[in-house]
Amino acid sequence: MLHVHDIDLLVPSDQPLIEANLPKPTETSRRIAEYIAALIPDGSTVELGMKNIALAVPEFLKDKHDLGIHTEVMTDAIIELFESGIITGVRKSIDRGKIVASFCMGTRRLYDFIDDNPLFSFRPTDYVSDPHLICQQHNMVAISTALEIDLTGQVCGRTLHTDSTSSPQAKFFSGLGNHTDFIHGAARARGGKSIVALESTRNRGSVSRIVVHLSRGAGITATSCEVHYVVTEFGVAYLYGKSLHERVLALISIAHPEFRAQLLKEAIEDNFISSDLATVEGKILVGPPELRTSLLLNDGTQINFRPMQPTDEKRMKDLLYSLSQKTFYYRFMSNITRIPQKQIQNFVYIDYRSDMAIVGTLPEAHGEEIIAIGRYYLDPRTNLAEVAFIVHDRWQNRGIGTFLLRYLITIAKRNGIAGFTAEVLHDNKPMLAVLRKSNCKLSSKFEDRVYSLKLDFIQM
C-alpha cells in the first residue's frame, strides 16, 4: 500500500502493460522440475523465478497442500496453483495468507488476476530479498538456477564462458540479482532448503556445466557451504554438511554420463578423492527416477524406496554397523566385524540391470537414513539373479522385507530376468517366510544347514 502523500509526481497514462509470453519449459527442464518438486513438502514457502526450470516446477506441485509464495518475480505459473487451492499461504511464518513479490512479468491474464486482488502484496526488493527476513520464513524453499558448478559445490550464476581452450574468457550474464540473498536466507531458515538447478551440459551437450574447477573469472553466487541440493536432469545431489569426498561423488553422479569418467579422473588427479576410486570409472550412475516408490506402514510411517546411489556409501556403512550381531550373521553368514572398503563400493556402484539395489529410507535432518536394502546380482549364464535384503532390527516384522522382495521381482521381470536364487541359513525363519510369500514357483535344496532356493517368475 502506498500513501498518496508519498507521491511527488503522478503522470496518468493509458498505455497497455508490456506482456511477456515466457517460453514453454523444455523436456530437460521438466525432468529437473520433477526432481525439485519432490523436495518441496506441504506447507513450504517457495521462491519461483522466471527461468525455464523454475517455470516448469508448478506443473509438478499439483499434489501439494498449503504452499506459500515469497519470490522476487511473479509469473503466470502461479495462477493455476492458486485457483486449485494449492497456494494458500496459511502456514507462512510472516505475511501469512499473502503472496509476496517485488514485480510481475507475464500475460494480460496474470495482470488481471493480480489487479485489485488483496491476496497479493508487492514490496520493495530490499524487503522481499532481505536474507534476514527470508530466514524467518519457516520451511522456506529457494530455487535458484546456475550456469556452472564445481565439484566442491561453488555455484556460478553470473558469467558465461567462451569455449576457447587457448584463452578462455568470462562474459558477465547478469548482476548480483537475488540468488545469493535467497540461498543465504533459505539455508538459515527453520526447515529451509536451498536448491540450485541446472542442465548438466551447455552448447548442445558439448560442455559439462559440472566442472572440477570453475572457469576463470566466474561470478560466484553461492559458496559451497550454503547449498543444500543440486539438481540436474540426472538426479539430486545433497551437499549440505558433506565432506569433500561425498560432495565430489554426489555431483559426478548427476553430471552427464559422457563427462563422468573425465570428472572422476580429474578429481583423483587433484586429490579431491582417493585414487582407489579409479576402479569405479564407468559405474557412477544414478538409478532411474521411475524406480521410486513408497510404503505406508500401519502406524502411518511412510518409507520411501529408491535406487541405491554412489553417495549412499556412508549411509550404507551406518546401516551395516548398526545391525545386531544376529541380523548381520543372517545376511553375510559370517561373524566378521568389519566389511572391506572394496565390498562397500561393490554395494553402491551398480549398473541397475545386472546389479540392482533398492534402499528404504526415512527423512532426517541430515538428509536420509537408510533402514532397509534389497538387491539382486544377475548371473548372465542362467538369467537368474541372487537376491538378498537387510532390514534394520528396529524395523523388522513390519512388512518391509516382503514389500522389498515383491518390488525387486517387479523390476527384475521388466529387465527380462527369469527368476531369483537365494542362500538362507536354516534358522533364518523371517527370511524364509518372506521368500515363501513371493507368489513365485519355489523350489529348494537343503545342505549343511543352508537352504538353496529358486524363485521362478515364469510360473507367476
Walk me through the topology:
Layout: H1 27-38, E1 45-47, H2 52-56, E2 68-69, E3 73-74, H3 77-83, E4 99-101, E5 103-104, H4 108-114, E6 120-122, H5 125-128, H6 131-134, E7 140-145, E8 148-150, E9 155-156, E10 159-161, E11 170-172, H7 179-188, E12 193-197, E13 201-202, E14 207-208, E15 210-211, E16 220-222, E17 229-232, E18 235-238, H8 244-253, H9 257-269, E19 293-296, E20 302-307, H10 313-320, H11 325-332, H12 341-348, E21 355-364, E22 367-379, E23 384-391, H13 400-414, E24 419-425, H14 429-436, E25 441-447, E26 450-456
Parallel strand pairs: 1-2, 1-7, 3-5, 4-6, 7-12, 8-15, 12-17, 23-24
Antiparallel strand pairs: 8-9, 9-16, 10-11, 13-14, 17-18, 19-20, 20-21, 21-22, 22-23, 24-26, 25-26
Helix pairs in contact: 8-9
Summed up, what is this model?
This protein has two domains: 27-280, Acetyl-CoA hydrolase/transferase C-terminal domain (Glutaconate Coenzyme A-transferase, 3-Layer(aba) Sandwich); 289-456, 3-Layer(aba) Sandwich (Aminopeptidase), CATH 3.40.630.30. 26% of the residues lie in helices and 25% in strands. It contains 14 helices and 26 strands.
Features:
460 residues; alpha/beta; Glutaconate Coenzyme A-transferase; Aminopeptidase; 2 domains; eight-stranded mixed β-sheet; six-stranded mixed β-sheet; 14 helices; 26 strands; elongated
Describe the protein.
This protein has helices spanning 27-38, 52-56, 77-83, 108-114, 125-128, 131-134, 179-188, 244-253, 257-269, 313-320, 325-332, 341-348, 400-414, 429-436; strands spanning 45-47, 68-69, 73-74, 99-101, 103-104, 120-122, 140-145, 148-150, 155-156, 159-161, 170-172, 193-197, 201-202, 207-208, 210-211, 220-222, 229-232, 235-238, 293-296, 302-307, 355-364, 367-379, 384-391, 419-425, 441-447, 450-456. It has 460 residues and is of the alpha/beta class. The chain has two domains: 27-280, Acetyl-CoA hydrolase/transferase C-terminal domain (Glutaconate Coenzyme A-transferase, 3-Layer(aba) Sandwich), CATH 3.40.1080.20; 289-456, Aminopeptidase (3-Layer(aba) Sandwich). The strands form seven sheets. It has an eight-stranded mixed beta sheet with strand order 19-20-21-22-23-24-26-25, sandwiched between helices. Strand 10 (159-161) and strand 11 (170-172) form a beta hairpin. The radius of gyration is 25 Å and the shape is elongated.
